[in-house]
Design brief:
about 35% helix; flat; about 100 residues; mainly alpha
Length: about 100
């Protein structure tokens, strides 16, 4: 139902390449474990449950990797819809 595309494969390859190059980011504080130890050192604080917001998107909450960094949907078939949805999510989060 959709034209052939290798964008998902290319995104995975880009992510794997970034890891091989050592390009990593620290897990944001609000996503860290809520274990007793981590709570003592501030882990898990500031988490804002996305499903409490319209469209289940938390404005301004970071997940450690910029959206769209690796996966870039094409303009063919259903990927056009995915690109539009990702743009809408960026708008809701207030991403530039």
């Amino acid at each position: 139902t959709a034209p052939k595309s290798n964008t998902a494969y290319a995104g995975l390859a880009a992510a794997a390449q970034a890891v091989r190059k050592g390009i990593t980011v620290q897990v944001p504080e609000h996503l860290r474990s809520n274990s007793k130890f981590n709570k003592k050192v501030g882990g898990g604080s500031g988490y804002d449950y996305s499903h409490d917001h319209e469209d289940a998107i938390t404005p301004g909450q970071s997940y450690g990797v910029e959206p769209g960094t690796f996966y870039q949907p094409g303009g063919k078939g259903y990927e056009k819809n995915i690109a539009e949805r990702l743009a809408y999510w960026r708008q809701l989060r207030g991403d530039s």
